[in-house]
Each structure stands twice: as structure tokens, then as C-alpha cells.
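Sample intake sheet
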Amino acid sequence: MLVGAPDTGKSTFAHRLLEAAAAAGVSAAYVDADVDQTTCGPPACVGLHWVHRPQDLSDLGRADALEFVGSIRPERVVLEQVVATAKLADLARTRAELVVIDTTGAISGVVGQTLKYHKMELCRPDAVVGLQRGGELEPLVGMLRRFFSATVELRAADPDVRPTSPEDRRARRAAAFAAAFAAPLERWRVRPTVFAPTLPAGLDLARLDRVLVGLMDGRGRCLGLGVLEHDDGLLRVLTNSGEEMRGLRLGSLTMDPATWEVHPVRLSEVMFGLD
């Protein structure tokens, strides 16, 4: 498992590990749990990519399996992030000798430390590599060493990785969402009974307009992303992954399909008017 603040080189380090494994003939899997600046799969999801041959690194952005989290930030979705990462880590172990788990840049405070603690607890890595510029990882590393038996090593952040501006991060995220919604797109009419969490009786469906959703196949697998559209009393989902969908998981983001920009939303406020 790789931990570190944003722009410390976690994804670059992961790629080097996977390259070395492929070159040595070691079957590997990449679990990308950085739900904001994703490498594998779209944002708001955890993605898995199998790396059995060097050629498999050429399309690392393609997710062979996907878990929907519904947010790009850890606040309020710690459970979803931990469960999604653990599910794919368990799946990865069934076919890979090396599993590399990349994580979000949340490393401090109650949210960051709670997120990493429970990922350690459920993913059970043998080793943790922390990348830091100064001493920012010391509190987290101290906690991990105290509570878990995994080997924890600290390394200096990659000097070739330059910090990205908020504008660049937004642009990269929007481009990743645009790729996830690549044509051909279709609009599927959806019933109010297909959602998780379930909708309260009498909900004005217009409140769900532009909410990001994960498309589920009825076997616990995420097929891809969709965005809800409400028009003239009807609710539809815009997606390119609708053929096998059986249900929709509500996310904690709204999306503008014209720009692929997202904004956080609280489901309790959307559905019950609660903060």
C-alpha cells in the first residue's frame, strides 16, 4: 500500500513496481483508490487493472473491475472508500502475486488517519511505502506501526513530480469524467424503486437532477457511471453502460454534462432536506 500527500509520486512509484513485476514474470494487480486524481478508471471510483505482461501497462487507465464510491473526497464516505478498496484488493489476490494499492492524498486529521487505519485493517498489506517531502507522514506512520504488523518504510517524495494547481487538478478530473462518458451515450428511463439508498416516499424527483450514480448489475458489480436527468416529471440516466444495469447507487456529487465539472452534495440534504 502506498501512502502520501498529493503530488508525492505515489502513482509513479506504483508504475515502477508494476513494470518490475511484469519484467520478472510476476503476475500483478493495480488497485487505484485515489478517487480524485485517478489513474485507473474514472474519478469517484476505485479501479483494478491486471498486469500479467509488460503490454498490460500500456492501458493502465482501463479498469478491469470497478467499485463505485460516489465522491472525490474522503469526508462522509470513509466507509464507501474502505469497502471499495478492500473488495478489489481481495479480488486482486485471487489472480496476482503482487498487489499494489494506491491511495488518496488524505493523510492527516481524523478523516485521513481513520481512512488509512481502516484500509490497513481490511486490506491487510504486507508492506506500506510512505512518500513524503518533510515529516508530514510521521504521525500516520507512527499510528500504523503501533497498530499493525506490516513493514512500513518511508521514502523521499519523487523530486521529478511537481505540485499541480487546483485548476490543473480540476481539468484532469473533468477529462477523466469525459472519458468515462465517451460516446455512444444513451438515456434510460429509470423508476424510483431502483436506487440505493432507497428514495423516501413523496420525494420530488427533480432534486436528483444531475446527481452522479454508479450503475450496478445485480451481482454487486459496478458497470460504470451515469448522471441523472429530470425533465417534465421523468427521471432518466445518461450513460454508456446501461445494457446490464439492474440498480443505481446514488453518489455524493452533482455533475454538469456540458463541462464534466462536479460539485459535492449531501444525500441527506437532497432526500430529506437535512444537513
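Comment: The chain is about 30% helix and 30% strand. The longest helix spans residues 78-93.
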